[in-house]
Amino acid sequence: MEGFQQQFIISIGIILLGYVLKRIKILKESDGQTIARIVFNITLPALVIVTFDQMEMTLSLVSLIFIAILFGFAFAAIGYFSFRNADPGVKGMAIMLVPGVNVGLFAFPLVEAIWGREGIQHFGMFDVGNAVIVFGLCYFLAGYFAKGTSTFYLREAIGPLFRSVPFLTYMFVVALNIFDLHLPGLVLDTAEIISAANMPMALLLLGLYLNFSLETSWLPFIGKYLMVKYGAGLILGFTLFWLFSDYPMLANTALIGFILPSSTTAVVYAIRYKYQTQIVGTIVNITIILSFILIWVLASFVAYH
Question: Partners of 101 in the beta sheet?
C-alpha cells in the first residue's frame, strides 16, 4: 500500500511540474499538441506493443471491449434523458460529452503504476471499445444535435477511428496474439525503451492542459453534467465491481473505467460543430481533477478488498 500511495504522489508531482512550467512560461499550452502527438503516436503504441506481446487472450479481456461499447451507449441514453429539455446547443454539448472517456492519456500512466502490465492489458481492451464510442458514437451525437438533422455520414464517423495510431496498434497486436505470432526481439526491446517515456510524458501533458478559468454562469450546467457523469458512473461501476468479484482485474477495470475523465476529443468536436469550446475545455479539465481524486480513493478501496 505504501508503494501505491507513493506512485500517486509522484504522479501528482509530475502533473504539477507541467502546470508550473506552463505558468512560468518555460513551456506553453500549445507545446502540449506536440507532446500529445508523441504520446499518442509513439510512446503509447510502444507500450501497447510491449504489454500485449505476451498477453494470454481470455474471455474476461475480450468482454471488456463489449462492456466499454455498452457503457458508451448506456451513458449516451442517460445523457439524452438528463438533458432532453435543455437548449439544443447545450443538449448536444452534454450528450456528446457523457459517453466517451480518456483512457490512453489519463488512465494508462496511473494504471501502469498501480497494476502494472496486467492493468494495461485490461484497460487496453477497454479502450478498444471506448475508441468505437469516442470516434463513432460521440462524433455522430455531436453532429446530429448540432445540425438538427438525422443525416449521418458513416465515412466521417469511422474515418478518425482508422486513422488512430493507438487503435490500429491494438488491432495489430491483438491479431498477432490470436494467431500466436510475436514481433522480433529487437522490435520489442526498442518498444520497451520507448514505452518507458509514456508515463512521465502523459502526466506532464495533463499538467500543461490544466486550466482553472471558470465563469459562474456555467456552474448550473457543469454541476448537472458532473452529477450525471459521476453519479451514473459510480452506480454502474460498483454494480459491475460486485458482479465480477471473482475476476478482480475485470472488476477493477469496470469500476475505474466508468469514472475516467471526459474525452479530450470532445474539444475537437466542439470546434468542428461550433459548440461552446471554452465550456467543453473547462469540463474536461474539471473531470481530470475529479477523476484523479476518485481513482486514488477507489484504488485505495480496492486495495483493502
Answer: 262
